Amino acid sequence: MFEVRLKYSIIVALSLVATAFFTADLFGIFYDTALASSLLLIVLCVPLLSRNLKWYEPVCALNVMFALLALAGIYLAFTGFTTAEHALHRFPLLAQRAPLTLCYVSVWILCFYAGYYLFRNVPVEGSEDRALVPALMGKQAGAIRLLSLICFSFALINLSYNVWLYNPVDPFSYFTSFGVSRYRDQVNEGFYTTLGYNLFVVALVFYRYSFQVWSLRKFILFSVLLVISLIAVLSRGQIFFTFSILLFLFCLEYFFSRDRKRYFRLATRIVPLIFVLIVFSYFARLVSVELFLAEQAGNDLNVVEAFFEKFSDFGALIFGKGNVPNLPAMIVYEDHFGSVEAYLYGESLVAWMAAFFPFFDATYIGYGISDTWYPNNVGGIPPGVVHEMIANFGFLGGFLSAFSFGVVSVLIFNLVVKKAGFLIVVAYSALFVRFWFILPKVEFSVLSNAIWLFLPTALVYAVYCLANKNFRWPIREKL
Length: 479
Fold this sequence. Notes:
Structural class: mainly alpha
Oligomer: single chain
């Protein structure tokens, strides 16, 4: 198997280099940027050579997003950075700086690999027909299923309450206006909160944990609960935040599945469709904003035409607007820290704590850069993990931090493989989707989102375990 992966990796690497050389005329002065992007793609193939590589390793999650950076580099080189919304430098300077930035990212990733593979234990999962985390059985399964129903009911009450606050007459418009959720007009008096929406995730996780084998009835019920949950969370207007729940459940299912090989083959077909759905929802959100503005101005909007217009501008919207790791903004970060502003020495790495301690003085560098360099921009311009490390420790310190981050990541992975349990895999799946996967695009403060994805489940499960010792559940063996 290793020899096969090695052969294919060499073929892919040579193909990328050959493609970059033979397409030089397409890129003009940005040829070096395209070549450096191809080099980055080659570096990302290195983990394919590792022994018994598992798709749910942190290195795989990081590399998926870094691959989007490489594709963005090729796209921006091909278009001459004309669609790059956050490019502040002149084109000749971009042609010089962008390849160097991409090469730095490649070396940073190699330093991450060094720390990662120095401490990586070869994962051994055992039999393919046994779940890594067996589901509950008997009365315990019935109890956790009842708890799932209770959690879902409370979450649904929270959703119904929010609809009553804003659109009691036309509930459908509450969901179709998700692109402008912050600008909704509150009709009834009350306190708006989505805290109860966390119980949707708890309900889904508990329900899946309550049975060992899927049946048609269970699949239909789970699908209904999932669709309602996604619609509720999507109403807040956060696209990735919503669909990361779906990716989280897909990751978690692997640990519960009794036929992991078959499930993996199925997941490789479904996950790409999820990403298509994410892009579709992003375009729908943009159209929702345009529809809102048109209604405010008293104009009509051809929704279908507006939607197809977004698809025709796919490259500019995805790669040019910074919806993937933002190459032009990375160059701005290199200019800012160490000259305009001193290095942070770890301040931004603990910003995630502000989500749990209201009086914690957090440093969000994405907003600071936006205020300084992009005064007309709404929101922050996140650096990505590579340039956040530069902002904290400088260019050389960034390499050392990459090595350290690789060590920490693989130690967590080793723990999951060695002592996989219900709460451990729930927490790990949340970190995999909302931390490692998205980190090359954002900053360390995103860790709070990962924690919020598994913390409610952990808290409710802890209450269940305490109650299970002191309370006799009024349920039958089989529900």
